[in-house]
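DATA SHEET
Item: assembly model
Revision: 1
Owner: S.N.
Input lines:
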Amino acid sequence: MEKSAGGCPVEAAVKLIGGKWKIVILYQLVTNGPKRFNELRRIFPEVTQRMLTLQLRELEEDGLINRKVYHEVPPKVEYSVSELGQSLHQVLLHIQDWGLYYLDQKAAKN
Amino acid sequence: MEKSAGGCPVEAAVKLIGGKWKIVILYQLVTNGPKRFNELRRIFPEVTQRMLTLQLRELEEDGLINRKVYHEVPPKVEYSVSELGQSLHQVLLHIQDWGLYYLDQKAAKN
DNA sequence: CGGTATCCTGCCTGATACTG
DNA sequence: CAGTATCAGGCAGGATACCG
């Protein structure tokens, strides 16, 4: 008998990082350090403000990133990976590696 | 200057494996070998037939899986990973590893 | 068995306006 | 600056029924 759903580690992982923009956001924060809200907006212009907010909130709720508010004027909010988010570093690098491999393969076909 | 969108390998990878059920489907095919349509349905009862079909079609279009039709009665269709899909093996294992780590961490907190 | 076809809901987008 | 609010429109995804 094989476990399929329920406690499957792969499904658990996908639940956390499977959001539409979560992987790229995490990749950005893991490799390039903490970023402010509008910095992320500039980095991902194709992500709407609403979706960026939602994805960041979900990542925060799942404990993958930290949200630090600086009570200054003008206000400043910085997003950074948590310890749990940092533990995804290798996974994210492997995804990037595979992406490179895939793009190479595709380029070689032309 | 940093590349953010466009040819980013991470975004390219997410485009291919970022579908709602693609990672778990690929994981299943990579680790447990070729599967028929209704086998996959039984393994993932929470995925609707329509979505399973759509995700399989997209995976096929992107060259990640192969679809082999046996012209028998009753009909038989077998899905298996392609060479490109097989190249995701390590990535999928890393995702699984991280899922295990995450579930452990969560369990430890209780 | 392995799918389509159809309808329907709900999320996502895009634009714009507003707030602490 | 870092959001929230709202609304129109589109498209992804769900439920059900039907088909070769």
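QC remark: The radius of gyration of chain A is 16 Å.
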